């Protein structure tokens, strides 16, 4: 398998044709204050799309509700490629700017999600790995499918998305996408559970004439079988086997 660009500290390669397999394990802790007069900030934790400027610094974010927020303060020194978009999970607070009718965001903590464009199985030179994991939650984002995965093994966890099929249904005008979670791990020793944050890009399936995307997302679980999460116009359902 091509392993160029792999890093092990919460950094995602966004190159379309590179099998970037990444580890994302988040533990974001916010300190509290014992002063009764302290006003606790209204902090959210969400998946966001962040946009960088010419110097690679993050300048704004787009929420999954479609709201664009300028970053007015950020605790992260994250630098990415200039004038690009990256997918992140962030603890942030929304702020009023000026007269209060322009929204901004103060970032307290963030990390990049695992967000490579899905690849066909043939592009994984060492084959498709499906080590077990469990989905904690899965839902639609803004041009993305957001997933929080729980893993138990120690070591490095490498994730990607395998595109098994993508077919446009001429009757509905929707593209039917079947995906499998690629998961490789360097250790079989289990310990306490950890979380990985994944965000599958879907915009590439919205070609001319396509009305929407239906997804069947398959993972191999700790129970020793595959589980498929189906997200379509009818909502979310789970199929065993």
UniProtKB/TrEMBL annotation:
Residues 117-231 form the NigD-like C-terminal domain. Transmembrane segments: none annotated. This is NigD-like protein. The lineage of its organism: Bacteria, Pseudomonadati, Bacteroidota, Bacteroidia, Bacteroidales. It comes from the Bacteria. InterPro entries: NigD-like_C_dom_sf, NigD-like_N_sf, NigD_C.
């Amino acid at each position: 398998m091509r392993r160029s660009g792999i890093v092990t500290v919460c950094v995602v390669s966004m190159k379309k044709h590179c099998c970037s397999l990444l580890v994302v394990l988040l533990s974001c802790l916010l300190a509290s204050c014992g002063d009764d007069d302290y006003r606790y900030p209204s902090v959210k934790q969400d998946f966001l799309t962040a946009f960088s400027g010419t110097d690679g610094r993050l300048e704004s974010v787009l929420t999954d509700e479609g709201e664009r927020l300028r970053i007015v303060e950020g605790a992260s020194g994250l630098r990415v490629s200039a004038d690009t978009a990256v997918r992140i999970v962030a603890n942030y607070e929304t702020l009023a700017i000026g007269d209060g009718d322009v929204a901004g965001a103060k970032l307290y903590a963030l990390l990049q999600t695992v967000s490579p464009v899905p690849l066909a199985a043939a592009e994984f030179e060492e084959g498709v790995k499906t080590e077990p994991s469990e989905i904690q939650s899965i839902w639609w984002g803004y041009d993305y499918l957001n997933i929080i995965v729980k893993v138990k093994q120690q070591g490095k966890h490498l994730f990607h998305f395998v595109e098994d099929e993508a077919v446009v249904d001429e009757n509905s005008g929707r593209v039917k996408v079947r995906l499998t979670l690629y998961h490789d791990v360097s250790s079989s020793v289990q310990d306490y559970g950890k979380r990985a944050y994944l965000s599958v890009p879907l915009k590439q399936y919205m070609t001319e004439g396509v009305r929407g995307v239906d997804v069947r997302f398959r993972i191999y679980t700790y129970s020793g079988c595959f589980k498929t999460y189906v997200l379509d116009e009818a909502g979310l359902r789970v199929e065993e086997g």
